Amino acid sequence: MNTNARISLAIVLLALAPTLLAAQETTMYSANPLRLDLRVLGHPPLDVIPPDESAITSLVIGADGSLYGGTSGKRAHLFVLDPKWGHVFPLGHLPGQESIFHALAAAPDGAIYIGTSLLNQGRIDEQGKDVLQRYKGYSGGHVYRFEPAKELQSRKRMQTPDPSRPLPSATDLGVAVPGESIVSLIYGDGALYGVTFPGGHFFVTDLKTWKTVDKGPVCGAPLNEQPFRSIPRALVLDAKGRVWGTGDYGALFDYSPGTATLTHHRDRRIPSEMGREYKAIVDALVLNRDGMIYGGTSDGFIFRFDPETMTIQNLGKPIWQQRIRGLAFSQDGDLWGVGGEPGGSARVFIYRTRTGSFESGGMLHVNRTPYYAWLAYEAESMVAGPDGTLFIGETGRLAHLYVLYPWK
Amino acid sequence: MNAHSFLRPTGLGLLLAGLALGGPASGAAPKAVRLESRTFPNPMVWDSNYTACLVASDGRVYVGLNYHGGGASVAVYDPRTDTMRLLGDMNRITGQTNLAIEPQAKVHSQISEGADGKIYFGTHLSAFYGFATFPSPDAYPGGHWMVYDPKTDVVTDLGIALKGNGLLTMTMDPKRGRLYAVTYPQAHFLYFDLATGKTTDMGQVQNWDAIGRTLAVDDLGRVYGCWGQGRLYRYDPEKDAIENLQIRLPQREVGVPIHRAYWETEQTFTASAVSPDRRKIYFLETGSSYLVEYDPHKGPEGEMKLLDQLAADRYLGKRDVPYAMISFCRGPDNVIYYANNSAAGAEDVTPYWGGGMAAGLVTYDLETGRREDKGLIQVEGGLTAVHPNAASAAPDGTIYFVAHVLEPEGKGRSVSGLPADLVLEKDTDSKKQMHDGRTYTLRLLIYHPGKNR
Predict the structure, then answer these.
(1) CB distance from B25 to chain A under 8 Å?
(2) What phi-psi label fits residue A231: left (phi over 0), alpha (psi between -120 and 50 degrees) or beta?
(3) A166-199 per-position pLDDT tens digit
(4) Which residue of B lies nearest to A16 if distances are taken between CA atoms?
(5) Would you state the pLDDT for residue B259?
(6) Is A230 helix (H, G, I), strand (E, B) or coil?
(7) CA-angle at A255, arms to A252 and A257, nearest 5°
(8) In whole angstroms, what is the distance from residue B170 CA to residue B214 CA?
(9) Chain B residues 111-140 with CB within 8 Å of chain A
(10) What is the end-to-end Cα distance of chain B in Å, rounded?
(11) Residues 238..297 of B with a Cβ closer than 8 Å to A: which?
(12) Which of A336, A343, A300, A346 is nearest to A320 (CA)?
C-alpha cells in the first residue's frame, strides 16, 4: 500500500470512527443494566473509611433527608450522604465499637440513634468456635445519640473528612442490655426498640427518661448452628405503632407500646422450606404505604403480612440463594430487594406489587471503565431515599455504597 | 492485511488507521532472537499457561499446564537428561473426577520451592461464566493448595483454599513456611501455614477485573500487591494486617484503551522479581511495561524508581503499548529478562492483550542500566513465539519462558480456539477471522544469555 492510499484509507476510517466506536462494547455482559452506580466511602485516596472497617451493615434515612450509614469491622464508623451533594462524608468512628448491624434509627427531631455490637462475621479460621466465647467479658452494645445538626455546625469550613476522628456530637446513652450486642434497632413514637445477640432480648428505651426495659428473650435455646439462635435481623413498626419481629420457627411476635406487652403468635410463621422451619428467621422487614408489611426470610422467601387480618402470604423466592439482605419500596410502589448468601453473589430483584410478579435485577456490578468498576459479592442493607433513590450497602473488606435509581 | 478484516466492527479502526499512516518501518525482516524449545507431553491437550514456571534449586523446571474444561497438570523438565514428564491430572488428584463440577483446569499461579525442597503450587478454575454460576453447587468448588515432593515423587492435596475461588496468584515465604495467594474472582488475600495446615482469609483486596498476577515478598516477609490505580498494599506478618499504602507505581494516563482488554480499569504490576537479598523489588507495570525498582525500606511506604520501559522498541513512547506479560524474571547475572507481546509488522492487533502475533525479548542490566531489545523470538525452524506468559531463571543462568509457538498449518491447536477463559473476549467472530487456519503448541523456551543469537 503506497502512502497516498494509506492516507486515503485513514481518512475514511477516521470519518467512520464514531460508528466504529459506538459498536465497541466497553462493558461486560454481567454489568448491571439497571441505573446503578456506586460511591466510595469518603474522598479517595486518603479520606476514606479504611478497608476492614468499611462493611456497610446499617442504613437509615434521617429526618433531614440525608442517608446515614453504619459500618462494621475493626472499628464501627458512621457516614452521611447528603443528596444535595451526592457523595459520602465519613463522620467518624465510635471508639471501642466494632459494628453497627441493622441498628441505625432516625428520630423526628433529626437525631440518629446508633446501636453497637460485636462483629459477628468472623474470618474462616474463627468459624466453628463457640459463638459465646466472643461474648465473655463483653459489657454490651451501647446506644448513642448522634446529632447531625450539631456536627454540621461544628464542622470547620472546607474541612476534609476524617474517618480517624471519634464521632463528634454523639452522646453515649450506655449499654442497652448488659453482655448483649444490639443487632436490630428502630425508632417509634419516642422510644427505641431493639433486639440483642446472643440472648435475643427485646428491649425498649424511653427517649424521655433514657430508661431501657429488657422485655426478655423473643426466642428459645440456641440452635448452635446457622442461625445461632432464632433472633430476627429486622424489626418493623406497623401503621398503628406496633413493633413486629420473629422468634422460634419464624413465628411472629409483636410489641404494643400502649400496653407494653410482647405477644408471640406461634401460629403465624414466615415462609421457609419444609423441614427448615426451625431455622427460619426474618432478614428484612419494610412497611408499605397501604399498611402491609413485606418481609424477606433466611431461606430467601418474600412474604406479605397484613397486621390487621394477621394473614401471611408467601410471595415466592426471587433468587436461588438463601437470605434476603435488604428490602425497600420505590416511589411507584414496587418492592426492591437484595439477597444472597455469605460467600455468595448478591442479587437484586424486584417484586411488582401491581402484577404480583418478580423480576431479576442482576448483580451489584458497576462498570464505568476506565474510571472505576466494582462487583459486590455481599450486601447487608437497603433503604429508599426521599426522592426514591435506593441505597444498598456492600459488606466485605473494601465496601462501597451502591446507588440505584429504580425509575426508567 | 485485507480490507475485509480491516473493516470489521471492533473499534480497531482508529488504531489501524494509525498504523496505516505510520506503516511498517521498512521491508526488511525484523530483528530476531533464536531460542531453543521443547514441547510438553500430550501437546494437543495443553492450551495455555500463566505465571506458573519455576526453576528449582536442583535445576529442574516446573511448568503449570492448563486444559480448559479438563484437568490441569504440572510438567517437570530435567535439563540434565533433556526429558519432560507430567505430575498427573489435578482434577483426579483433588478427587473431582466424575463429580460433574467445574474442573481444576489450571495451575495458574507462581510455583514456589519451600525450604524443605518441596514444590508448592495451586489449582485454578478455567471457564468462569460471567459470575452467573458463582457459587452454585455445580460451580467451581475452589482451588487447592498442592505440594510435590521430588524425593518421594508424590503430589499431595493440601485442601481447598477458599470456597468457589481459584488460586490466581500465589507466592511463598520459605522462612515462615507460608503460602500467600490472591483468589479469583473474589480477590481474597489468603495465607496457608505449612506447619498447621491452616488457611487464613484476610478479605478482599481488589475488584475481580484488576487482580494482580503476581505477589512480591521482601526480606522481612512482607507481601505486596496492588489495590487500586497502581497503589500498593502490604501484608505485614508481624501485624497480621494488610495496609493499603498510598505509594503508587509510576504510570502514564493510558486513556480509553481502544484495542486492549476493554475491561481493564486498573493499573497494577503484572510481574515482579526481587534482588538476591530481597531488599529490592522489581515490578513490571501493566499499562506501559515500565520497569520499576521499589525499595520497601525507604520511608514508611518505601520508594519507587522508574528504571526504563521494557516494551519492544516499536512501542516506546507510543500509546498502544501491549498489555505487559508475566514472562519476566531476574537472572543470576542481575539482568532482567522480559518476553513481551510484540508484532512482526502491521498485522491486526490481538484484542485480548494487544500487540500483534509475535513476542519479543527485552533485557535490562540492573548493574549498568542498559536496556536492549533483542528482537522477536523465534524457535527451531524459524517458527514464531507468541503470547509469552511465564519466565524463570536457572542457577546456571539459563532463562526459561513458556509461550505459544505458531506451528505450520494443520499441526497443533487452533489459535482461534484459544479459550477466552474470562468470557470477556467478546468479539469471538473477529478472533476467528483474525486467526483462521493458524495453529500453535504451548512450549518451553530456553534462552542461554550470551549464546543465543
Answers:
(1) no
(2) beta
(3) 999 999 999 999 999 999 999 999 999 999 999 9
(4) B13
(5) 43
(6) coil
(7) 160
(8) 7
(9) 130-132, 134-136
(10) 30
(11) 241-242, 244, 246, 254-258, 262-265
(12) A300
